[in-house]
Design goal:
Strand content of chain B: over 45%
Order of helices and strands of chain B: EEEEEEEEEEE
Helix content of chain A: under 10%
Order of helices and strands of chain A: EEEEEEEEEEEE
Number of strands of chain B: 11
Largest sheet of chain A: 6 strands, mixed
Radius of gyration of chain A: 14 Å
Shape of chain A: globular
Distance between the termini of chain A: 38 Å
Radius of gyration of chain B: 13 Å
Number of helices of chain A: 0
Oligomer: heterodimer
Structural class of chain B: mainly beta
Strand content of chain A: over 45%
Largest interface: A-B, 23 and 27 residues
Chain lengths: 115, 115
């Protein structure tokens, strides 16, 4: 079974629109970590954020914000006032404390911001 | 720090040839991961090491693939013999230590094309 589901394969928005990327995870562990990575067209994977299962506070970093809800097993990522430079593939990942350092990546959401 | 270093960045080879991909993790990081990314399969974990010891190689596709980590600052992924279906981008990543709570930092990847 897929541990991390990113149901949105591709999203297109017009510049300055807000966009939310969904991430749903599955785990039986009580201690786990969630991550978001960005993969721009250049190909490298860039770490964006880490969240542990005990901290459900939402986080904001500039135009980026993350909404972690354990009740729905979701860790959604919102970009406010999107820009062309936000065009990339975004991956959500889960790490369970019981499986050491292994990450489970979602299949990614390809975001295109149209100028 | 220079980040995770991978070489070569691009490799084009013919079917049947041996291919060796190289990775230098971030200094001080104790965990190292090899991933493969394709359009069809997305991002797949091939193998990971903790303190130079292979922990889980269940993602290695078959015996043609092998990985070594002779010391804390160097790892190789070898494919012998290579096949066209091995064409992919291979990423190396490293993280601080075991436990699953540390983000992984990715190298720029090696784009492998097997003709």
């Amino acid at each position: 079974a897929q541990k991390v589901t990113q149901a949105q394969t591709e999203i297109s928005v017009v510049e300055k629109e807000d966009v939310t990327l969904d991430c749903v995870y599955e785990t039986r562990d009580t201690t786990y970590y969630l991550f978001w990575y960005k993969q721009p067209p250049s190909g490298e994977l860039v770490f964006l954020i880490r969240r542990n299962s005990f901290d459900e506070q939402n986080e904001i970093s500039g135009r980026y914000s993350w909404n972690f809800q354990k009740s729905t097993s979701s860790f959604n990522f919102t970009i406010t006032a999107s820009q062309v430079v936000d065009s990339a593939v975004y991956f959500c990942a889960l790490s369970e404390i019981g499986t050491g350092n292994q990450f489970y990546f979602g299949t990614g959401t390809s975001l295109t911001v149209i100028p | 720090d220079a980040g995770v270093i991978q070489s070569p960045r691009h490799e084009v080879t013919e079917m049947g040839q041996e291919v060796t991909l190289r990775c230098k993790p971030i200094s001080g990081h104790n965990s190292l991961f090899w991933y493969r990314q394709t359009m069809m399969r997305g991002l797949e974990l091939l193998i990971y090491f903790n303190n130079n010891v292979p922990i889980d190689d269940s993602g290695m596709p078959e015996d043609r693939f092998s990985a070594k980590m002779p010391n804390a600052s160097f790892s190789t992924l070898k494919i012998q013999p290579s096949e066209p279906r091995d064409s992919a981008v291979y990423f190396c990543a490293s993280s601080l230590d075991g436990g699953g709570n540390n983000e992984q930092f990715f190298g720029p990847g090696t784009r492998l094309t097997v003709l």
